[in-house]
Design goal:
The protein is α/β, with parallel strands linked by helices and 215 residues long. The chain has eight helices and seven strands. 38% of the residues lie in helices and 16% in strands. Its EC number is 2.7.1.25.
């Protein structure tokens, strides 16, 4: 009928006849409200490298500065969002994809989203990077040597992998592809690692330098 607005629909993946609904309140409006800029800090590294501990230290450091963040921890997300996924290769890739999409939503909400998971393959991490505007994906490589991770073995997984009770374990019988161009690399020097708080402060300094801690 005359004057009737037509909604343009499309197909995305397996979803057909869907339309993107734009709201008058956008990312910049939310960022001004929070006095910060949304971004994704993606912490990658071997099991036992200290990713979850670093994520919590970073969230605490940001909170102390009055900045809003949210942690998307690999294990935590498997308690709910990704509880239907196994540790098979295709499910691990889907685990990362879903967390990347949720991190993107938090970023759009104006949060500093902290993703903490092994994410061993560059292609999967790069796919998450490509979801975001340039600069909004900050890859943090926690470069903790395998021998230190295995000595820590907080969940006893390395011991099980060495005994052959876990197959396809990253760093033992499955590869880990180190980032080639991570924005931040946190590495052990002479076998010694900085404290989680010290490493968190390095990330906060980077966020401040790049202007994410103000609107």
């Amino acid at each position: 009928s005359a004057g009737k607005k037509t909604v343009e629909v499309s197909t995305v993946g397996k979803s057909s006849n869907i339309a993107w609904h734009q709201c008058s309140v956008g990312k910049r409006d939310r960022e001004k409200l929070l006095n910060q800029k949304g971004c994704v800090v993606w912490i990658t590294g071997l099991s036992g490298s200290g990713k979850s501990t670093l994520a919590c230290s970073l969230s605490h450091a940001l909170h102390a500065r009055g900045k809003l963040s949210y942690i998307l921890d690999g294990d935590n997300c498997r308690h709910g969002l990704n509880r239907d996924l196994s540790f098979k290769a295709e499910d691990r890739a889907e685990n990362i994809r879903r967390i990347g999409e949720v991190a993107k939503l938090f970023c759009d909400a104006g949060f500093i989203s902290i993703a903490s998971l092994i994410s061993p393959f560059r292609n999967d991490r790069d796919a998450c990077r490509n979801l975001l505007p340039e600069g909004d994906f900050i890859e943090v490589y926690l470069d903790t040597p395998l021998e230190i991770c295995e000595a820590r073995d907080p969940k006893g997984l390395y011991k099980l992998a060495r005994a052959g009770k876990i197959k396809g374990f990253t760093g033992i019988d499955d590869p880990y592809e180190k980032p080639l161009n991570a924005e931040i690399v946190l590495e052990a020097v002479d076998g010694n690692c900085d404290s989680p708080n010290a490493m968190a402060e390095r990330i906060v300094s980077y966020l401040e330098w790049k202007g994410y801690l103000k609107a």
